[in-house]
Design a protein that fits this description.
The structure is a homodimer of 305-residue chains.
Chain A (H helix, E strand, L loop, with lengths): L6 H7 L5 H10 L2 E6 L3 H12 L5 E7 L3 H10 L4 E4 L2 H7 L2 E4 L6 H6 L9 E4 L6 H8 L6 E6 L10 E4 L9 H7 L3 E4 L2 H11 L2 H17 L4 H21 L6 H7 L6 H11 L2 H16 L13
Parallel strand pairs in A: 1-2, 1-4, 2-3, 4-5, 5-6, 7-8
Antiparallel strand pairs in A: 6-7
Helix pairs in contact in A: 9-14, 10-11
Chain lengths: 305, 305
């Protein structure tokens, strides 16, 4: 399929920070989006973008590789998806380009591509890339280049996108695309971005706590399937209360304050603190950050920061 | 309002364990439900029952006290709710009776009431009550008496009900009412019930971890509201993955196994374990159980069980 016209796009990216005109524009302008490299996370983003209903998408250009993933996406969304063997075709036919290649390929892939600084927005999903290197290799100005990290759940529009936006807060279209994928948190510099990445690496720890809570019940005579069901349902119920206050900077504190003073819940938290479990979380997060920053291999011991 | 006929009900409770006939019966038989005592948790259960769509409810009889809560319920569901000054009226006009009084009132309240062993089901929400005491005080046979514990989220049909069912698994109607309120986990004896209660007392601990994770981001330069939003969204996303496998006895283990070996998530969990945080959870849960069983005041230290 041939890509639709692009004239409205440029108008968009040159618009002011006026959020009213931005959202108006979004409702009018179908987006043309390309993927250079098409691995797991690219496939999740593309699936989410094709599925979401908030931002109109007219065209999704994807690299053939990985062939299995690109074919599956085209099969699911035949009117939207176009597969290209040549990365330059992806770039030429789209306006927002998601870069999803391996860290060691990033520089050489970008250096071979020709971008239009008036038209293209480059979004790198390569965790090790820096905005400076991306600008240099793609020959794009900093206001056209972003870094993004997201969870696989973006495929169900229930992920969360971390967006490094050093030059502008709420970049038009991109913020709205991230919101449509499940939510957007913006970092203003690389240090903030690294800290945000730490939070997204707490999956193993969380599932470990769920397993621990389940096994306590099993040790006390419950069937493992019943125990698993209760733990899952309980955390689901608790998280829904947390989600209701997540936009309040002190929301979690309020949920803690709602526990009866001296009651079982309150005492449980105080015991957990006294036993050093929350200090352990601090050390775990500090170790992850250190590894992300390349300062260590993440092994203990660590002083909390 | 006058209560509807009750003839189908008895038929129900004398039916066999055949789940097909049970669900068929449920779809035909509107339930008449009463509340003796009407505090926070009674109000939550009544609100959930009036809201849910799975089991037809024809009538909700509630104690006037607490007046504010009973009036609010009647205002919300005027066609369903009848307020009574006399607890015996509640019992006389309903078939399933939720007992929601203070622990020290339980015996004297029950001893004053007259139940019909062929018609009534008694469900005690009093955490300290035993099935034996309830049977003696209400003059009801054990197969008519249950204990239940539930979270306030039952009001939104998103709670979880713990049901002590020593004499029969899946008691008809009651199981379905609990399912309609968000989910049902059954204990076969008082010890299992106590262990299940422990899990529902992990709210303080969980919100403490959320606060900890948020504060890590704040220390690294994120705004507290952004940090809160990310933590809330992340746990929501993780819990949804957990909920998808919660009926699998090894589902949480699979989620852990999905983390890249040696990756940031995997290392985070191993660090958390090495720092004793999961042992701390064991001790916290053991302390809560000890307090529930009246063996201690729940203070540390505790050997994990």
């Amino acid at each position: 399929m041939s890509p639709p016209e692009t004239e409205f796009i440029t108008l968009y990216h040159s618009s002011s920070d006026d959020s009213e005109s931005t959202s108006l524009g979004t409702s009018l302008t179908p987006q043309r989006i390309g993927f250079v490299g098409f691995g797991t996370i690219a496939s999740a983003i593309a699936t989410g973008l094709a599925t979401q209903q908030s931002v109109p998408i007219s065209y999704l250009a994807v690299s053939r590789r990985s062939e299995k993933r690109s074919s599956a996406l085209q099969k699911s969304f035949p009117d939207l998806v176009s597969i290209h063997d040549d990365n330059q075709q992806v770039v030429d036919t789209a306006d927002i380009i998601f870069l999803c290649v391996l860290p060691e390929q990033t520089s050489s892939v970008l250096q071979k591509l020709k971008f239009d600084a008036h038209r293209h927005t480059l979004v790198s999903l390569v965790s090790t890339s820096t905005i400076e290197d991306l600008c240099r290799d793609a020959q794009l100005p900093p206001e056209r280049v972003f870094k993004m990290i997201c969870l696989p759940a973006v495929a169900r529009c229930n992920g969360i996108c971390l967006l490094l936006t050093p030059t502008q807060k709420d970049p038009p279209i991109l913020t709205e695309l991230c919101e449509a994928l499940g939510g957007c948190v913006q970092a203003r510099d690389a240090q903030q971005m690294s800290a945000l990445m730490v939070t997204t690496c707490l999956m193993g720890s969380f599932y470990g706590v769920l397993r621990n809570n389940r096994e306590f019940l099993v040790r006390h005579g419950l069937d493992r399937d019943q125990a698993s069901f209760l733990v899952g349902r309980l955390y689901d119920s608790m998280v829904q209360d947390a989600v209701q206050v997540q936009k309040d900077p002190n929301g979690f504190d309020q949920l803690i304050a709602e526990q009866t003073p001296g009651g079982l819940n309150d005492q449980g938290l105080r015991n957990l603190e006294a036993l050093g479990a929350l200090d352990a979380y601090d050390q775990v997060q500090t170790a992850i950050l250190s590894r992300i920053l390349g300062e260590s291999d993440g092994s203990l011991p660590f002083e909390s920061r």
